[in-house]
Amino acid sequence: MPPPAWTSPPAAVGSCHDLTKREAWAVSEPDPAVPCSERHTTVTTAIVQLTRTPDWDDVRALSRRMWVECVRSVDALLPGSTAARVRSAYTIYWFIPTEAQRAAGARWIRCDLGLPDGKRLRPLPASGPELGRLPLPDRIARCRLGRAAYYEVVRCAHRHAFRATHHVRRTGSFPGARVMRRWAERVCRARIPRAGIYLEYPTTKQSWKAGFRFAVCLKQTRR
Known about the structure:
- 24% of the residues lie in helices and 23% in strands.
- The chain has helices spanning 21-24, 59-77, 82-86, 99-103, 177-191, 205-209; strands spanning 16-17, 42-49, 91-95, 108-114, 116-117, 120-121, 142-144, 153-155, 162-169, 197-200, 214-220.
- The longest helix is centred in the first third of the chain and has 19 residues, at 59-77.
- Mean pLDDT is 94; it is low at 1-7.
């Protein structure tokens, strides 16, 4: 007898998927996995099992539920430090079951890791996503586009308007989003005094619990 539908994940942890950027941002992703030795753009890092059926339309609640487990799974996968990961362009994409799977009782959230490259996702190596030590090479380093593109994350080998140049770790307990923003602006401006900046910092307890305890400072560039 097959297991209950809610215990059956859409893909195994470690499986690879050849997704377009549009597919990576979709609510659900029903296509079968591909061999990791072939072209692929994401790898599944976690399947978060839910003990009860959630409100599938409450994106904020779903994000809170999956975030810590998904981020920790990414840190376990990437061969480098958390500091290097937050200075990289790697992005978490997550999916809920399809309508048919939900109707059958599926209760899980799938987390994938990908590398955005403008209008597409960059193919990942067959050996798995790379990271290593800082400074990261442009092929995986974290940059952002400009205001017209909603400051979207891209790898620095792509055209960009901001580049992650510094990170500062904060200790203690989570002080709240407002305090974090003021602190991030202060420490980043001290390191980038004469250029435009873009700030990244934790805004929720879930992000803090997952290990994102940094101000990431992105300096405006002309590239």
